[in-house]
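> example.struct
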């Protein structure tokens, strides 16, 4: 089970088995309701990947009956026996992989709710009538929400931070009060500034219900909501503004790239992939779109028409992040090895070998692909500076690395970063790096030395000043 943020997901319940010993359970709590207490937890953290239309690991959470049936490894839980329930073992990390996959663990209170519901017999009191839920953003948090995306303003003075369902805009130097911008997304997956810094986009949605984009306009030192759109039937993923700032390109769970006007106009849907589009990037001239997907491909298409030009590479696993320079497309993901692709060679002619009917491409992808060094874990995000000379890499490991482009030489390593690192950003001038981690912390670093300059939680926490 996991939220819809990433860009990097895997099937659940692919292997079975339980630990032979388990502590005795407390008596069942009274009044635990599936409809009121359990279903909202599943909706927020699990249903994007586990519904009838997309049952990862053959697990379908559309009903208590299908939830009980479980996935490839058999029943997800045994009514009255939480100690023998696979779902709880994976939620607590006792069974690997821990769930939600590559996401913050459920709070102890949520795990306890599920445990007590199973212990009390896993009764089904679900209502077939859909319930429209209001997204509640607390004034203060009991536990810091994961930071899923970070972005510097073009002038480097502000940092936008995605915290669950809200965006926090704060001064990089720590002066002044942060501004909190609410959304109606269950989970934000991306925040980004327009090239002129006058518009801030917040991207996310509600699993299995809608994608959402909110545009905030700069007004006298603060940001105010200008417009909001609900798009499609599921959460939208990472992308960015076109170089002219007029269009936002985003990925969808349906394999499409969505082109959203920053002003008035119709949203364009471009069907390109056979699975989730995890990330989208623009070429520097705005003519091309580079998209990476859970279908393990990196594709280049024309932004104006949406026409696919070429699938320039196939990864061995999910692609989570993409970027571009004037001459290169860049990708990274679960394969752990970032790669750059020479666009001129990738989209042009390739060398041939043989003669007559035996003539064919001479390892075409090898002619235009350069692989960087292997990372310590799965790569979840990439960032690049305005000159497109520095690449920042972050992921499910406790450091972030900066590389020189185009040669791929490592420049510096940021150490001690709380992992997983879901978001990374470079200031336009390449002097600062920001990271956002699962534990709710944001780090700001000197890009030249890797020195940590500031580390903080951007939202108010109960009991702390």
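> example.seq
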């Amino acid at each position: 089970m996991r939220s819809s943020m990433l860009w990097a997901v895997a099937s659940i319940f692919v292997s079975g088995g339980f630990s032979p010993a388990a502590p005795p359970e407390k008596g069942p709590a009274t009044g635990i309701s599936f409809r009121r207490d359990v279903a909202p937890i599943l909706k927020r953290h699990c249903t994007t990947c586990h519904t009838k239309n997309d049952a990862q690991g053959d697990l379908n959470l559309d009903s208590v009956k299908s939830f009980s049936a479980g996935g490839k490894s058999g029943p997800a839980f045994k009514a009255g026996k939480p100690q023998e329930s696979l779902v709880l073992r994976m939620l607590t990390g006792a069974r690997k992989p821990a769930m939600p996959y590559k996401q913050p663990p459920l709070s102890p209170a949520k795990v306890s709710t599920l445990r007590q519901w199973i212990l009390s017999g896993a009764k089904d009191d679900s209502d077939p009538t859909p319930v429209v839920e209001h997204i509640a953003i607390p004034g203060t948090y009991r536990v810091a929400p994961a930071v899923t995306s970070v972005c510097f303003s073009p002038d480097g003075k502000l940092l936008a931070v995605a915290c669950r369902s809200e965006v926090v805009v704060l001064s990089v130097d720590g002066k002044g009060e942060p501004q909190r911008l609410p959304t109606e997304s269950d989970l934000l997956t991306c925040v980004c500034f327009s090239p002129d810094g006058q518009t801030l986009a917040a991207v996310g949605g509600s699993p299995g219900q809608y994608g959402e984009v909110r545009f905030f306009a700069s007004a006298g030192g603060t940001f105010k909501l200008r417009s909001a759109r609900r798009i499609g039937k599921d959460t939208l993923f990472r992308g960015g503004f076109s170089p002219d700032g007029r269009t936002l390109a985003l990925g969808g769970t349906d394999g499409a790239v969505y082109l959203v006007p920053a002003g008035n106009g119709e949203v364009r849907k471009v069907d390109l992939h056979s699975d989730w589009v995890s990330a989208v990037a623009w070429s520097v001239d705005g003519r091309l779109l580079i998209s990476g997907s859970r279908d393990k491909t990196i594709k280049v298409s024309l932004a104006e028409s949406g026409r696919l030009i070429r699938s320039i590479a196939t990864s061995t696993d999910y692609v989570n992040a993409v970027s571009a320079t004037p001459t290169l497309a860049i990708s990274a993901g679960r394969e752990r090895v970032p790669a750059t692709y020479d666009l001129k060679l990738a989209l042009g002619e390739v060398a041939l070998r043989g003669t007559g009917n035996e003539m064919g491409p001479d390892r075409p992808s090898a002619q235009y692909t350069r692989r960087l060094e292997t990372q310590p874990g799965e790569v979840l995000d990439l960032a690049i500076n305005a000159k497109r000379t520095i690449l920042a890499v972050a992921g499910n490991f406790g450091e972030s690395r900066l590389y020189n482009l185009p040669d791929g030489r490592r420049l510096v390593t940021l150490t001690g970063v709380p992992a997983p690192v879901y978001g990374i950003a470079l200031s336009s001038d390449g002097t600062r790096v920001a990271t956002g981690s699962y534990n709710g912390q944001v780090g700001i670093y000197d890009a030249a030395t890797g020195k940590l300059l500031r580390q903080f939680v951007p939202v108010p926490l109960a009991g702390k000043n």
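> remarks
Residues 147-456 form a domain with the Methylamine Dehydrogenase; Chain H fold (CATH 2.130.10.10).
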